[in-house]
Specification:
The protein has 84 residues and is an all-alpha fold. The chain has one domain (13-77). 71% of the residues lie in helices and 0% in strands. The chain has helices at residues 13-26, 30-60, 65-79. The termini are far apart.
């Protein structure tokens, strides 16, 4: 990890109390809780970007009926021998 930077954060008292309860229960610092929250936010935004990109790609190049039929045939051939 690089150099640590200190900064002040203002928030409503209720959210602060929730953060305090979480960190005390987990036995970690406020910094750790905030850093974990930031990491979750980054992952969430990255996932949203990936989903948006996938959806855009699919709109630009949707499956053709021939492709759908081929996937159905392969799926039936693959899963028909399974004991469900």
């Amino acid at each position: 990890m690089g150099k640590a930077i200190k900064f002040a954060v203002s928030m409503p008292e209720e959210e602060f109390k929730e953060i305090e309860a979480i960190r005390l229960k987990q036995g970690v610092s406020r910094s750790k809780v905030i850093l974990e929250a930031f990491e979750l936010l980054k992952k969430s935004r990255m996932m949203e970007d990936q989903i948006r990109s996938y959806e855009e790609g699919y709109r630009n190049m949707p499956d053709r009926p021939h492709d759908i039929k081929a996937w159905e045939d392969v799926s039936l051939a693959t899963f028909s021998d399974e004991d469900w």
